[in-house]
Amino acid sequence: MNTHQQKPITLLICALGGEGGGVLSEWLIDVARASGYPAQSTSIPGVAQRTGATTYYVEVFPVPMAELAGKRPVFSLYPAPGSLDAIVSSELLETARQIGNSMSAAERTLVITSSNRTLTTQERMQLGDGRTDTAPLLELVRTHSREHHVFDMGELARSSGTIVSAVMLGAIAGSGLFPFTRAAYEGVIEAGGKGTAASLRGFAKGFELVQGQQSQARLVQDLLSDSERLANNPPGLQPDFIQIFPLAVQDIVTLGHARLVEYQGAAYAQRYVERLQQVLQAERASDPAGARGYAITRETARWLALWMAFDDIVRVADLKSRARRWQRVLGEVKAGTHDLLKVYDHFKPGAPEFAALLPQGLAQRVLAWDRRRVARGKDSWALPLKIGTHSVGGMIALRLLASLKWLRPLGSRFATEQALIEQWLAAVVSTTRRHWQAGLEIAQCGRLIKGYGSTNERGKDNLLYVIEHLAAASSFASDEARAEAIAAARTAALADDAGQALDRTLVQHGVPARPVKAQPIRWVRNPRLNKTS
Q1: Hey, which residues does 346 pair with through a beta bridge?
Q2: In sequence order, what are the beta bridge partners of 86?
Q3: Are 298 and 254 within 8 A, CB to CB?
Q4: 48-58 burial, b for 16+ CB within 10 Å, e for fewer?
Q5: How confident is the model over 290-298, as a mean pLDDT?
Q6: Strand ranges (E), 265-350
Q7: In the chain, what are the domain boundaries?
Q8: Which of 117, 201, 338, 438 is the most buried (most CB within 10 A)?
Q9: What is the pLDDT of residues 40-67, one digit of tens each?
Q10: Neighbours of 449 (CB within 10 A)
Q11: What is the mean pLDDT of residues 253-265?
């Protein structure tokens, strides 16, 4: 394809009086020219504040001047409805007004808008609350854009001590709309003189927020693509297996089975199926007609698959060394064909991570040694590693570590996790047979198992406490009260990592608060005492 036949990249900037829309358009033109790209901007001045709009139209030709062989592109002075590549606006209602003028096209236009409002004269005149509801405005943005980013630009500007145009510039840069580097944008700001530091802070916040949202969107898309791929091509799935489960749970069971085949192998995935069959039998006993859609089996299938595929150093090495991850990094940094990219991954495995792959006896000796080390006032042992995953040696190291998954069933953590899983499943089965709603609440407590390290351990401790003191307790007046208590405890545990909300909830339902865990006292030297007077 002849790149000289490309069309200009078009951007409409919508700002209110005093927000620096003119400065923003000048910044963009200066960045384009400093980067060697032809560009043009025009402005449509309006009345300040909410009685009129001030818009700026920018076009940038995406081919450097040096490659045009003396030719110059022809730019337009005004935006054409439906032909915009992007709209950037500092006020939500103004964004909706431009969309109402057919400026945005759902299949083409990127919309970046602030969520905050500056009230119109009509809104201020009402005796009551005359503000326009923001929900329809947000829905309008969503349905008339190919991609959208909505956040409070005003708050970011205030927290940075700058005007909103700096945040808008950062958002434009972070979106990757124009073929300019971040350094080029920042260089133009730095040339401005007064207020440079604050403008750079606002720019950075806008840049990082939009890039973060894009990264999250790509991650979700990858997960959805993986889910669709696994659903359509479930590895190791036999036709007779899918007939075991009712239609309402087949999709989630299929995904869980595929995840565990990939994680550990077909035998481990079969163990997942056998565990779920126990739950399904209990639910059928409690709800023979399946009137509730087999919700307990479905929730158990979801959280059981995640728990059985727990994260360890082998799993992390596997995820870090996958080709899909490298492609995602390339997209996030916008590396070109001729760019050199180096990626360093930092690891700091400690004694628990190494002990997890050792048999129970050896693992306990390693952990006891680390506890004695901490008791002597030293930090817990850890091995800091910096691995260049862009290099052959670094990738080989990760793949070798990822190939050690055969060690998992022999390790101490595997045995510990399986025992805890069986304890949770036994509670799900027994509670379901007694009362369907209470069984569902216990199944949903699988959500408590998340994260890694101390977060993961705290979740398992909370789950066991709920099982022992709520699911198995005989002090409740009815099973409905038991189900209510379990649901309240789960919600409290998820809302507060410190556990104070959970303890209050337990006490409210007649259950003692969790015991306080003993913490070693560490003595440290006062650095001031080491100084000579």
Answers
A1: 386
A2: 11, 110
A3: no
A4: eebeebbbbbb
A5: 92
A6: 344-347
A7: 3-222, 239-260+271-309, 313-411, 412-517
A8: 438
A9: 998 876 654 444 567 889 999 998 888 8
A10: 21
A11: 92
Residue 2 has pLDDT above 50, yes or no: no
- Report the pLDDT value the prediction gives residue 294, as an integer from 0 to 100: 93
CATH match for 3-222 among 3.40.920.10, 3.40.50.12370, 1.10.530.10, 3.40.50.720? 3.40.920.10
Helices (H), 16-152: 21-34, 92-100, 121-125, 134-143
pLDDT at 239 over 70: no
- Over residues 409-430, the mean pLDDT reads 95
| SS3 label, residue 148 | strand
Quickly state the pLDDT bin for 109 (edges 50, 70, 90): very high
How much is the pLDDT for 261? 92
Mean pLDDT confidence for 391-407: 91
Higher pLDDT, 531 or 197: 197
Residue type, 451: G
Residue 531 φ/ψ region, left for φ over 0, alpha for ψ in the -120 to 50 degree band, beta for the rest: beta
Task: Using alpha carbons, select from 319, 308, 318 the residue that is nearest to residue 270.
Answer: 308
DSSP-based three-state secondary structure for 137: helix
Q: Is 81 left (phi over 0), alpha (psi -120 to 50) or beta?
A: beta
* 350-379 burial: b if 16+ Cβ within 10 Å, else e: ebbbbbbbbeeeebeebbeebeeeeeeeee
pLDDT at site 482:
92
Q: How far apart are CA 171 and CA 168, in angstroms?
A: 5
**Cα distance between residue 19 and residue 456, in whole Å:** 46
Work out whether strand 9-15 and strand 86-89 pair parallel, antiparallel, or are unpaired.
parallel
Q: How many CA atoms lie within 13 A of 198 on its CB side?
A: 13
Taking alpha carbons only, the member of 336, 11, 8, 52 closest to residue 171 is 11
Distance CA 111, CA 147 (A): 6
Structure tokens at 371: 């506890």
Q: Is the dihedral of CA 26, 31, 34, 37 positive or negative?
A: negative
Judged by phi (left if over 0) then psi (alpha if -120 to 50, else beta), residue 265 lies in left
> Does the pLDDT of residue 229 top 60, yes or no?
no
CA–CA distance, 319 with 486 (Å, rounded to integer): 35
Residues in CB range of 21: below 8 A, 6 or more apart? 13, 14, 15, 43, 54, 55, 56, 90, 165
pLDDT at 125 over 70: no
Share of the chain above pLDDT 70, in %: 88
Taking Cα atoms as reference points, which of 255, 248, 245, 306 lies closest to residue 276? 245
Place of tokens 């898309």: 221
pLDDT band at 4 (very low <50, low <70, confident <90, very high): very low
Band of residue 102 on the pLDDT scale cut at 50, 70, 90: confident
